[in-house]
Structures are given as C-alpha cells and as structure tokens.
Amino acid sequence: MELVIIGLGRMGANIARRLYKGGHKVFAYNRTQEKTREIEKEGITGIYSIEDIPEILASPRVVWVMLPAGKPTEEMLGKLTSLLSPGDIIIDGANSNYKDTVRMSKVLKEKGFQFVDVGTSGGIWGLTQGYSLMIGGDRETVEYLRPVFETLAPSPDTGWGYVGPNGAGHFVKMVHNGIEYGMMEALAEGFEILKNKKEFDLDLAQISQIWRFGSVIRSWLLDLTAMALEEDQELKDIEDYVPDSGEGRWTVMESIELGVPAPAIAISLMNRFYSQQEESFSAKILAAMRNKFGGHEVKKKM
Description:
By secondary structure, the chain is an alpha/beta fold. Helices cover 52% and strands 13% of the residues. The protein contains 14 helices and eight strands. The chain has helices at 10-21, 33-40, 53-56, 71-83, 98-110, 126-129, 139-144, 146-152, 168-196, 204-212, 220-231, 247-258, 263-276, 281-294; strands at 2-6, 25-29, 45-47, 62-65, 89-92, 114-121, 132-136, 160-164. It is elongated, with a radius of gyration of 23 Å. The termini are far apart. The mean pLDDT is 94.
C-alpha cells in the first residue's frame, strides 16, 4: 500500500521505517527538512511540501498524521482537507484527546473524507518489536487498511484491533496510558522500599531479574526497570522529575465524569505533579502546622 507519514518524530519515523521494511511504498514529510533528508538515506521517499501529496498518491490516498496532539494535529487535518479529495483516508496516530477526535471526525466526514484514529503504543521498541494499535473509525475503512496494521503490529494476528467508532481508538489508548501510570508508580514505590532497607544491602538489579521470570508482576515495564538498574542502581544521572503526557490527566478526568473510582491512577498522576515541583509549598505548610500544634522541629534552609 502507498501512504504518506506526516511527522518524523521518533515514533513517526519508526512507523515509516517499519512500513517501508514491510514492503509498503512510504513517503515521508516533516516540517524540519533535515529529518526528511535523513530518512531518505534509508530508501524512503521524502516530500518537501504537503501540496505535492495529491500528485504523488493514487486515490484513495492514505495519509498518516503523527504530530503532537491538539493544535498541531488539528491544523494539519485542516490543511489536508483543502488538498485531498473526498474518499481519501486520513489517519491520526498520535495521542489526541478522544473528545477532539470525535469532533474532528464529524468535520472530516461532512467533507467526504474517511477518518481513522489509531492509539499507538510501543515507544522506541516498536520498530523492532511491533506496535500495539487500538483503532477507531468505520469498520470498512479499517479493513481496507488491514495490510498497514498487520505490518505495524507484532504479528498480523496480535497486538492490533478495531475497537469501535471514531474516538474509541484514542479513548482506549488514553485508558491504556492511565493504567501505565499506575503500574509504573507501583514498581517505583516497591523499589524505593527495597532501597531503603539498608540492613539487608539488597541488590536491586538482581531482584528485578528474579522478578522478571515466573513472578506474577513480570512485565515489559519490569524488563525496562531491570535494564535501567543494571546500568546504574543509584540512577545517579537521572533527575527525580517525571513529566506527564496529558493522557493520565484525561483518564482521571474521565473517571470523575463517569463516577468510576480510579484511585491508583489518580495518585500516580499526583505523584508526577509532586516530582515536577522545585519545592513543595504544601510540605512547608505541613511542617509549619506540626511546629505550631506540637512544637515539632522545622528544618530551616541553609
């Protein structure tokens, strides 16, 4: 199948590479032309103006947009509707908010375009291991794109699937990322408890390797944790600052809207917020209260 990948960030570039290696005719566009020139060295055909897409692809054209969620994605979708023809297929493979996806799908369909939202998971390992793909849209369109999804997935029959109408793909990916927050937090807390049991002098790298095999908590996240601890048990070169991509926030907000309790995901998100503070004012308030009601010592800044 012929298609254009728009956006050559790490995941977008790797999606282009995996499709190209899988036998698809892949064209690639990036606003920063250096990235386009780099990927051309691997055999992928570069595009230097999105205005060229209608002439390059045969109908129905397939364009996969892999840009940051929000304004960059929506602006690109708007540009594509002015260039492409009714019946062409536009795929949003980034981490868009599912509510934006539902809204944009209505706009695109009113103009005659086919639209598919693909929640994409796999990170830097997707190129070699395959991607997990959660797909929303019209079932017939998804079936037409089957060769693309079978190539990107870990195997033709595993790791991908149609989950529902437009918005469903990004909704499922949002919840996936919320679960990821909770799992990561539990592992991080457990290893911190181990690290602080000084009298046992525990080897965290060894323990992570033990848990990887046969344990009920074995997982890919644990595999990655083991890799990091093998490199440096103290993690000396890593700041204790953890960003949040937005999908954890959306998952928590959705749980509130639905009235579904999600305490593990919520507290894992809050702990990421803690890590992003240069200093915690709430902790200062707690210390001040303890000092006032009980005369407890307050640690002063040097």
